[in-house]
Amino acid sequence: MRPFEYFRPSSLKEASELLVRYGDGGHLLNGGTDLIVRMRDGLTLPSAVIDLKGIEQLSRIREDEESVYIGATVNLNQVGRHETIGKSFPYLAEAALSVGSKQVRNRATCIGNLCNASPLADTATPLMALDAVLEVFGPEGEREIPIRDFFVFVRKTSLKPGEIVKGVRVTKTAGQGVFTKLARRKEVDLSMVCMTLLKAEDGWRLSYGAVAPTPVRLPKTEALLNQGAALEEVLSCAVSEVKPIDDVRASREYRLEMVKVMLKRGLEQIEKGGAVS
Ligand SMILES: Cc1cc2nc3c(=O)[nH]c(=O)nc-3n(C[C@H](O)[C@H](O)[C@H](O)COP(=O)(O)OP(=O)(O)OC[C@H]3O[C@@H](n4cnc5c(N)ncnc54)[C@H](O)[C@@H]3O)c2cc1C
Q1: Which of 48, 115, 206, 214 lies 20 to 30 A from 151 at CA?
Q2: What is the DSSP secondary structure assignment for residue 57, as one 8-state letter?
Q3: For ligand 1, atom 49, which residue shows the shortest CA distance?
Protein backbone atom coordinates (compact mmCIF):
# COMPACT_ATOMS: atom_id res chain seq x y z
CA MET A 1 0.00 0.00 0.00
CA ARG A 2 1.16 3.53 -0.76
CA PRO A 3 1.48 5.83 2.31
CA PHE A 4 -1.54 8.06 2.94
CA GLU A 5 -2.86 10.54 5.49
CA TYR A 6 -5.54 9.22 7.86
CA PHE A 7 -8.27 11.48 9.26
CA ARG A 8 -11.10 10.71 11.69
CA PRO A 9 -13.34 13.81 11.64
CA SER A 10 -16.15 14.20 14.15
CA SER A 11 -18.51 16.18 11.93
CA LEU A 12 -19.86 15.94 8.39
CA LYS A 13 -18.67 19.49 7.69
CA GLU A 14 -15.09 18.58 8.59
CA ALA A 15 -15.26 15.35 6.52
CA SER A 16 -16.64 17.17 3.50
CA GLU A 17 -13.97 19.89 3.73
CA LEU A 18 -11.27 17.20 3.80
CA LEU A 19 -12.80 15.55 0.74
CA VAL A 20 -12.74 18.85 -1.13
CA ARG A 21 -9.19 19.62 0.01
CA TYR A 22 -7.80 16.29 -1.22
CA GLY A 23 -9.89 16.13 -4.44
CA ASP A 24 -9.51 12.86 -6.35
CA GLY A 25 -6.99 11.64 -3.74
CA GLY A 26 -9.51 11.83 -0.86
CA HIS A 27 -11.45 8.62 -0.12
CA LEU A 28 -14.12 8.02 2.52
CA LEU A 29 -13.62 5.00 4.75
CA ASN A 30 -16.68 3.32 6.19
CA GLY A 31 -16.47 -0.41 7.03
CA GLY A 32 -13.52 -0.60 4.64
CA THR A 33 -14.46 -4.02 3.22
CA ASP A 34 -14.38 -2.67 -0.32
CA LEU A 35 -11.96 0.24 0.05
CA ILE A 36 -9.18 -1.57 1.92
CA VAL A 37 -9.30 -4.53 -0.50
CA ARG A 38 -8.95 -2.14 -3.44
CA MET A 39 -6.07 -0.33 -1.71
CA ARG A 40 -4.31 -3.61 -1.00
CA ASP A 41 -4.71 -4.60 -4.67
CA GLY A 42 -3.38 -1.21 -5.83
CA LEU A 43 -6.67 -0.35 -7.58
CA THR A 44 -7.32 2.70 -5.40
CA LEU A 45 -4.37 4.81 -4.24
CA PRO A 46 -5.65 7.47 -1.83
CA SER A 47 -3.54 10.35 -0.61
CA ALA A 48 -6.05 10.80 2.26
CA VAL A 49 -8.39 8.32 3.91
CA ILE A 50 -11.28 10.01 5.73
CA ASP A 51 -12.87 7.71 8.30
CA LEU A 52 -16.59 8.35 8.87
CA LYS A 53 -16.93 6.20 11.96
CA GLY A 54 -16.10 9.08 14.33
CA ILE A 55 -19.25 10.95 13.26
CA GLU A 56 -21.73 9.99 15.95
CA GLN A 57 -24.91 11.08 14.11
CA LEU A 58 -24.30 8.53 11.32
CA SER A 59 -24.34 5.50 13.60
CA ARG A 60 -28.06 5.02 14.22
CA ILE A 61 -31.17 3.46 12.72
CA ARG A 62 -34.14 5.78 13.31
CA GLU A 63 -37.80 5.22 12.65
CA ASP A 64 -41.12 6.98 12.83
CA GLU A 65 -44.62 5.94 11.78
CA GLU A 66 -43.92 6.39 8.10
CA SER A 67 -40.29 5.52 7.50
CA VAL A 68 -37.06 3.88 8.60
CA TYR A 69 -33.70 5.65 8.23
CA ILE A 70 -30.39 3.76 8.19
CA GLY A 71 -27.38 5.92 9.08
CA ALA A 72 -24.22 5.69 6.99
CA THR A 73 -22.05 3.82 9.50
CA VAL A 74 -24.67 1.25 10.58
CA ASN A 75 -23.30 -2.18 9.73
CA LEU A 76 -25.12 -4.91 7.81
CA ASN A 77 -25.65 -7.19 10.82
CA GLN A 78 -27.37 -4.28 12.57
CA VAL A 79 -29.59 -3.76 9.50
CA GLY A 80 -30.37 -7.46 9.14
CA ARG A 81 -31.25 -7.92 12.81
CA HIS A 82 -33.24 -4.70 13.31
CA GLU A 83 -36.73 -5.54 14.53
CA THR A 84 -38.70 -3.08 12.40
CA ILE A 85 -36.65 -3.76 9.29
CA GLY A 86 -37.22 -7.49 9.81
CA LYS A 87 -40.98 -6.92 10.15
CA SER A 88 -41.54 -4.19 7.59
CA PHE A 89 -38.93 -5.12 4.96
CA PRO A 90 -37.93 -8.78 5.53
CA TYR A 91 -36.43 -8.94 2.02
CA LEU A 92 -34.09 -6.02 2.90
CA ALA A 93 -33.02 -7.77 6.11
CA GLU A 94 -32.40 -10.94 4.09
CA ALA A 95 -30.33 -9.06 1.51
CA ALA A 96 -28.23 -7.45 4.27
CA LEU A 97 -27.59 -10.83 5.90
CA SER A 98 -26.65 -12.36 2.54
CA VAL A 99 -23.52 -10.19 2.23
CA GLY A 100 -20.19 -11.92 2.88
CA SER A 101 -19.78 -13.57 6.29
CA LYS A 102 -20.80 -12.59 9.83
CA GLN A 103 -17.34 -11.04 10.32
CA VAL A 104 -17.57 -9.05 7.07
CA ARG A 105 -21.06 -7.82 8.03
CA ASN A 106 -19.82 -6.61 11.41
CA ARG A 107 -17.71 -4.09 9.47
CA ALA A 108 -19.51 -3.63 6.15
CA THR A 109 -22.27 -1.03 5.93
CA CYS A 110 -25.35 -0.73 3.78
CA ILE A 111 -24.30 2.75 2.67
CA GLY A 112 -20.81 1.48 1.73
CA ASN A 113 -22.51 -1.26 -0.28
CA LEU A 114 -24.47 1.40 -2.21
CA CYS A 115 -21.65 3.95 -2.56
CA ASN A 116 -19.25 1.32 -3.88
CA ALA A 117 -21.72 1.15 -6.81
CA SER A 118 -21.06 -2.44 -7.79
CA PRO A 119 -23.70 -3.84 -10.16
CA LEU A 120 -24.09 -6.78 -7.79
CA ALA A 121 -24.48 -4.87 -4.49
CA ASP A 122 -26.93 -7.08 -2.63
CA THR A 123 -28.72 -4.38 -0.63
CA ALA A 124 -29.32 -2.28 -3.75
CA THR A 125 -32.20 -4.32 -5.22
CA PRO A 126 -34.51 -4.20 -2.16
CA LEU A 127 -33.77 -0.49 -1.75
CA MET A 128 -34.45 0.13 -5.46
CA ALA A 129 -37.76 -1.74 -5.18
CA LEU A 130 -38.62 0.36 -2.13
CA ASP A 131 -37.83 3.64 -3.94
CA ALA A 132 -35.41 4.51 -1.14
CA VAL A 133 -34.01 8.02 -0.85
CA LEU A 134 -30.38 8.83 -0.02
CA GLU A 135 -29.77 11.82 2.24
CA VAL A 136 -26.58 13.63 1.30
CA PHE A 137 -24.40 16.31 2.90
CA GLY A 138 -22.03 18.40 0.80
CA PRO A 139 -20.27 21.73 0.34
CA GLU A 140 -23.51 23.28 -0.94
CA GLY A 141 -25.64 21.92 1.91
CA GLU A 142 -27.96 18.97 2.11
CA ARG A 143 -29.93 17.27 -0.66
CA GLU A 144 -31.81 14.06 -1.35
CA ILE A 145 -31.13 11.61 -4.17
CA PRO A 146 -33.79 9.04 -5.10
CA ILE A 147 -31.97 5.73 -5.37
CA ARG A 148 -33.01 5.29 -9.00
CA ASP A 149 -30.89 8.40 -9.81
CA PHE A 150 -27.94 7.36 -7.65
CA PHE A 151 -26.20 4.66 -9.72
CA VAL A 152 -24.62 6.05 -12.89
CA PHE A 153 -22.30 3.26 -14.04
CA VAL A 154 -20.01 0.57 -12.60
CA ARG A 155 -18.43 2.17 -9.49
CA LYS A 156 -19.85 5.58 -10.42
CA THR A 157 -22.60 7.42 -8.52
CA SER A 158 -24.28 10.79 -8.92
CA LEU A 159 -22.48 12.18 -5.82
CA LYS A 160 -20.72 15.49 -6.49
CA PRO A 161 -17.21 16.36 -5.22
CA GLY A 162 -17.21 16.71 -1.42
CA GLU A 163 -20.58 14.98 -0.97
CA ILE A 164 -21.15 12.31 1.68
CA VAL A 165 -24.17 10.02 2.02
CA LYS A 166 -25.59 10.52 5.53
CA GLY A 167 -28.05 7.64 5.30
CA VAL A 168 -30.88 6.03 3.39
CA ARG A 169 -34.59 6.42 4.07
CA VAL A 170 -37.33 3.96 3.19
CA THR A 171 -41.06 4.50 3.45
CA LYS A 172 -42.97 1.77 5.23
CA THR A 173 -44.92 -0.03 2.51
CA ALA A 174 -47.52 -2.72 3.02
CA GLY A 175 -47.08 -5.66 0.70
CA GLN A 176 -45.18 -8.84 0.04
CA GLY A 177 -41.61 -9.03 -1.12
CA VAL A 178 -38.99 -11.60 -2.02
CA PHE A 179 -35.21 -11.22 -2.20
CA THR A 180 -33.33 -13.91 -4.11
CA LYS A 181 -29.58 -14.23 -4.43
CA LEU A 182 -28.05 -16.73 -6.79
CA ALA A 183 -24.40 -17.43 -5.98
CA ARG A 184 -22.04 -20.36 -6.38
CA ARG A 185 -21.92 -20.92 -2.60
CA LYS A 186 -24.37 -20.29 0.20
CA GLU A 187 -22.05 -17.91 2.09
CA VAL A 188 -19.19 -15.53 1.38
CA ASP A 189 -19.88 -15.34 -2.32
CA LEU A 190 -20.95 -12.58 -4.66
CA SER A 191 -24.21 -12.70 -6.58
CA MET A 192 -24.31 -14.13 -10.09
CA VAL A 193 -27.76 -12.53 -10.17
CA CYS A 194 -29.84 -11.04 -7.36
CA MET A 195 -33.44 -9.87 -7.46
CA THR A 196 -36.12 -8.21 -5.36
CA LEU A 197 -39.75 -8.64 -6.34
CA LEU A 198 -42.24 -6.60 -4.37
CA LYS A 199 -46.03 -6.59 -4.58
CA ALA A 200 -46.75 -3.21 -3.02
CA GLU A 201 -50.10 -1.51 -2.48
CA ASP A 202 -49.65 0.50 -5.67
CA GLY A 203 -48.46 -2.40 -7.83
CA TRP A 204 -45.50 -4.63 -8.68
CA ARG A 205 -41.90 -3.52 -8.34
CA LEU A 206 -38.99 -5.52 -9.73
CA SER A 207 -35.27 -4.93 -9.40
CA TYR A 208 -32.19 -6.94 -10.42
CA GLY A 209 -28.48 -6.82 -9.66
CA ALA A 210 -25.51 -8.19 -11.67
CA VAL A 211 -27.36 -8.02 -15.00
CA ALA A 212 -26.39 -4.49 -16.14
CA PRO A 213 -23.69 -1.89 -15.32
CA THR A 214 -25.84 -0.77 -12.35
CA PRO A 215 -28.62 -2.34 -10.27
CA VAL A 216 -31.82 -1.82 -12.29
CA ARG A 217 -35.61 -1.55 -12.02
CA LEU A 218 -37.61 -3.19 -14.83
CA PRO A 219 -40.48 -0.74 -15.51
CA LYS A 220 -41.92 -2.46 -18.61
CA THR A 221 -42.07 -5.80 -16.83
CA GLU A 222 -43.66 -4.13 -13.81
CA ALA A 223 -46.32 -2.62 -16.12
CA LEU A 224 -47.08 -6.04 -17.63
CA LEU A 225 -47.39 -7.56 -14.16
CA ASN A 226 -49.78 -4.77 -13.18
CA GLN A 227 -51.88 -5.49 -16.29
CA GLY A 228 -52.03 -9.20 -15.42
CA ALA A 229 -50.20 -10.23 -18.61
CA ALA A 230 -49.40 -13.90 -19.33
CA LEU A 231 -46.31 -15.30 -17.58
CA GLU A 232 -44.40 -15.99 -20.83
CA GLU A 233 -44.86 -12.39 -21.94
CA VAL A 234 -43.71 -11.11 -18.53
CA LEU A 235 -40.59 -13.30 -18.54
CA SER A 236 -39.62 -12.34 -22.12
CA CYS A 237 -40.03 -8.69 -21.25
CA ALA A 238 -37.79 -9.07 -18.16
CA VAL A 239 -35.03 -10.56 -20.31
CA SER A 240 -35.34 -7.70 -22.80
CA GLU A 241 -34.82 -5.12 -20.01
CA VAL A 242 -31.45 -6.42 -18.76
CA LYS A 243 -27.97 -6.48 -20.33
CA PRO A 244 -25.79 -9.01 -18.49
CA ILE A 245 -22.20 -9.77 -19.44
CA ASP A 246 -19.97 -12.85 -19.26
CA ASP A 247 -17.60 -12.77 -16.29
CA VAL A 248 -15.80 -15.10 -13.88
CA ARG A 249 -19.00 -15.89 -12.00
CA ALA A 250 -21.43 -16.66 -14.84
CA SER A 251 -22.06 -16.37 -18.57
CA ARG A 252 -24.44 -13.89 -20.13
CA GLU A 253 -26.72 -16.72 -21.32
CA TYR A 254 -26.91 -18.29 -17.87
CA ARG A 255 -27.75 -14.96 -16.28
CA LEU A 256 -30.53 -14.32 -18.82
CA GLU A 257 -32.01 -17.73 -18.07
CA MET A 258 -31.78 -17.09 -14.32
CA VAL A 259 -33.57 -13.74 -14.67
CA LYS A 260 -36.59 -15.73 -15.85
CA VAL A 261 -36.25 -18.56 -13.33
CA MET A 262 -35.88 -16.20 -10.37
CA LEU A 263 -38.86 -14.09 -11.44
CA LYS A 264 -41.07 -17.15 -11.98
CA ARG A 265 -40.13 -18.52 -8.55
CA GLY A 266 -40.56 -15.12 -6.91
CA LEU A 267 -44.09 -14.82 -8.34
CA GLU A 268 -44.90 -18.33 -7.11
CA GLN A 269 -43.56 -17.50 -3.65
CA ILE A 270 -45.63 -14.34 -3.40
CA GLU A 271 -48.67 -16.23 -4.68
CA LYS A 272 -48.21 -18.68 -1.81
CA GLY A 273 -47.96 -15.75 0.61
CA GLY A 274 -44.20 -15.73 1.20
CA ALA A 275 -42.19 -12.98 2.90
CA VAL A 276 -44.96 -10.64 4.02
CA SER A 277 -44.34 -7.15 5.33
C1 LIG B 1 -14.96 -11.32 1.89
C2 LIG B 1 -15.91 -10.32 1.29
C3 LIG B 1 -17.18 -10.75 0.91
C4 LIG B 1 -18.10 -9.86 0.35
N5 LIG B 1 -19.32 -10.32 -0.02
C6 LIG B 1 -20.24 -9.46 -0.55
C7 LIG B 1 -21.55 -9.92 -0.90
O8 LIG B 1 -21.92 -11.08 -0.71
N9 LIG B 1 -22.40 -9.00 -1.45
C10 LIG B 1 -22.07 -7.69 -1.65
O11 LIG B 1 -22.90 -6.92 -2.13
N12 LIG B 1 -20.83 -7.23 -1.32
C13 LIG B 1 -19.92 -8.08 -0.77
N14 LIG B 1 -18.66 -7.62 -0.43
C15 LIG B 1 -18.32 -6.22 -0.67
C16 LIG B 1 -18.48 -5.31 0.59
O17 LIG B 1 -18.41 -6.03 1.80
C18 LIG B 1 -19.81 -4.53 0.57
O19 LIG B 1 -19.96 -3.80 -0.61
C20 LIG B 1 -19.92 -3.60 1.79
O21 LIG B 1 -21.27 -3.37 2.08
C22 LIG B 1 -19.18 -2.27 1.65
O23 LIG B 1 -19.41 -1.50 2.81
P24 LIG B 1 -18.21 -0.82 3.61
O25 LIG B 1 -18.83 -0.06 4.72
O26 LIG B 1 -17.18 -1.83 3.99
O27 LIG B 1 -17.64 0.16 2.50
P28 LIG B 1 -16.20 0.84 2.34
O29 LIG B 1 -15.24 -0.16 1.82
O30 LIG B 1 -15.81 1.59 3.55
O31 LIG B 1 -16.56 1.90 1.20
C32 LIG B 1 -16.97 1.48 -0.10
C33 LIG B 1 -16.96 2.68 -1.04
O34 LIG B 1 -18.02 3.59 -0.71
C35 LIG B 1 -17.49 4.87 -0.38
N36 LIG B 1 -18.29 5.33 0.75
C37 LIG B 1 -18.47 4.69 1.93
N38 LIG B 1 -19.32 5.36 2.72
C39 LIG B 1 -19.67 6.48 2.04
C40 LIG B 1 -20.54 7.57 2.33
N41 LIG B 1 -21.20 7.65 3.49
N42 LIG B 1 -20.69 8.54 1.40
C43 LIG B 1 -20.05 8.46 0.21
N44 LIG B 1 -19.20 7.45 -0.13
C45 LIG B 1 -19.03 6.46 0.78
C46 LIG B 1 -16.03 4.65 -0.03
O47 LIG B 1 -15.25 5.80 -0.24
C48 LIG B 1 -15.67 3.51 -0.97
O49 LIG B 1 -15.43 4.01 -2.26
C50 LIG B 1 -17.73 -8.49 0.15
C51 LIG B 1 -16.45 -8.07 0.53
C52 LIG B 1 -15.54 -8.95 1.11
C53 LIG B 1 -14.19 -8.47 1.51
Answers
A1: 48
A2: G
A3: 116
